[in-house]
Amino acid sequence: MRFPRTVSTKFVIALLLISVIGTAVAMVTLFTQSFPFVTVSLPPAVIATSCTTLTSEGPVPLQGISGNVTFDCGVAVAAFHATGVAGTVTPTFTLPSGYTSLIAVGRPGTSPTCTSFTSTIPLSSTVGIAFAAGANNLYVYCALYTSAPAGNFASFNVVWTQV
Prior knowledge:
This protein is mainly beta and 163 residues long. Helix content is 11%, strand content 31%. The strands form 2 sheets. Strands 1, 2, 3, 4, 6, 7 and 9 form a 7-stranded antiparallel sheet that branches.
């Protein structure tokens, strides 16, 4: 069965175009919402310091003799302190020739020395160290050596990071 063609193809196309245009014109913007930027804060620091350049304390190393050098922020000023925030921090460093190991020694209330402390943290480069909530020790560094070299010990840096 065939239906008679009473409407031309051109008429149908024109009608479709008009209806699409009419629909587009019928859409009205109600409103636009803008989203603000959101500031991302760093987590609270697990450890902190009052200096970036350390000083050496104690006796001058004697060539060929074993011992240690205490590094802090000045006489009776700790190199760093625990802030009481729980978390893990990671030191990264390379010990120069002559030093055999680096430790952090601490005690609450008063800056420690390499001979007067209540806690010891052996430091290994890129190995994390966990601090408990409420920890409040003050720390200095003790760089150990087995035989002081002729001349000087080279300087070096410790970079602390936390996740």
